C-alpha cells in the first residue's frame, strides 16, 4: 500500500495543484465579480467564468482557489480552475507560442496578409484565416503560432496540423516542432 492512502481515507485530500497560489506579477490587474475573473496585462485582456462551486480570492498579490468539499469532481475542478488562472496570468504577461514544422518536397507555407496559404501536396492550396488574437509567422519550413490564450493557440496549431498530419512511411506532413514520428518500414520486393 502506498503511504498517502491513510490521509486519503480520512478525507483531508487536497489538490496539489489547486492549493498552490497563483502569483500575480506587477503590471497585471485582476478583477473579480461573482464567478467572473478578468485578467489584464501588458499583452492584453482575458476573462474566465469559474464554476459556481469554486471560490477565487485575491490575497497578498496572489490568486487563491478554494472548494467547498472533497468530492472527486470538485477536487478535479479545483486543480483545473487554478491551472486556467495561472495560464491566463502567464498569457497576458508573456504569451504562448507553438511551432509547427512542414516536411515534404514542395510543401510550404506563406502569409497573404493575415491569411495563411499552405501547399501540402494536394491539387489545391489550403487557406486558413486565424481567429482574432492569434498571430502567425512563417519561416523556411516552419509556422509559428502565438497569442495570449493558451487553449486557442493549441487549438489553431492542432487545426493547421490536421490539414496534413505526418504520414508513417516518409514522415511528410505538418508536425509539432520536436514531435517524434515513428517511421514504418515499407514493403520490399520478394517477400
Describe this structure in words.
The protein is an alpha+beta fold. It has two domains: 13-93, Outer Surface Protein A, domain 3 (Alpha-Beta Complex), CATH 3.90.930.12; 96-176, Outer Surface Protein A, domain 3. The chain is built from three helices and 13 strands, in the order αββββββαββββββαβ. It has helices at residues 5-9, 72-93, 150-162; strands spanning 22-23, 29-33, 36-41, 44-49, 55-59, 62-66, 96-103, 108-112, 115-119, 126-128, 134-139, 142-147, 173-176. It has a four-stranded antiparallel beta sheet, with helices on one face. The longest helix is centred in the middle third of the chain and has 22 residues, at 72-93.
Give keywords.
191 residues; Outer Surface Protein A, domain 3; 2 domains; four-stranded antiparallel sheet; 35% strand
Secondary structure blueprint with pairings:
Layout: H1 5-9, E1 22-23, E2 29-33, E3 36-41, E4 44-49, E5 55-59, E6 62-66, H2 72-93, E7 96-103, E8 108-112, E9 115-119, E10 126-128, E11 134-139, E12 142-147, H3 150-162, E13 173-176
Antiparallel strand pairs: 1-6, 2-3, 3-4, 5-6, 7-12, 7-13, 8-9, 9-10, 11-12
Amino acid at each position: 500500500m502506498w503511504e498517502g492512502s491513510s490521509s486519503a481515507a480520512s478525507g483531508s485530500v487536497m489538490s496539489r495543484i489547486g492549493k498552490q497560489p497563483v502569483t500575480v506579477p506587477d503590471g497585471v490587474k485582476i478583477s473579480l465579480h461573482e464567478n467572473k475573473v478578468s485578467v489584464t496585462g501588458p499583452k492584453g485582456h482575458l476573462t474566465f467564468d469559474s464554476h459556481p462551486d469554486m471560490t477565487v480570492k485575491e490575497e497578498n498579490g496572489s490568486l487563491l482557489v478554494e472548494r467547498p468539499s472533497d468530492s472527486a469532481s470538485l477536487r478535479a475542478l479545483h486543480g483545473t480552475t487554478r491551472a486556467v488562472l495561472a495560464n491566463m496570468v502567464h498569457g497576458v504577461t508573456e504569451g504562448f507560442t507553438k511551432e509547427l514544422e512542414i516536411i515534404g518536397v514542395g510543401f510550404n507555407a506563406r502569409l497573404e496578409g493575415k491569411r495563411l496559404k499552405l501547399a501540402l501536396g494536394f491539387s489545391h492550396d489550403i487557406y486558413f484565416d486565424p481567429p482574432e488574437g492569434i498571430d502567425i509567422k512563417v519561416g523556411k519550413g516552419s509556422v509559428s503560432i502565438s497569442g495570449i490564450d493558451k487553449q486557442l493557440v493549441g487549438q489553431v496549431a492542432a487545426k493547421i496540423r490536421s490539414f496534413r498530419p505526418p504520414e508513417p512511411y516518409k514522415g511528410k506532413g505538418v508536425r509539432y516542432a520536436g514531435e517524434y514520428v515513428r517511421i514504418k518500414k515499407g514493403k520490399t520486393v520478394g517477400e
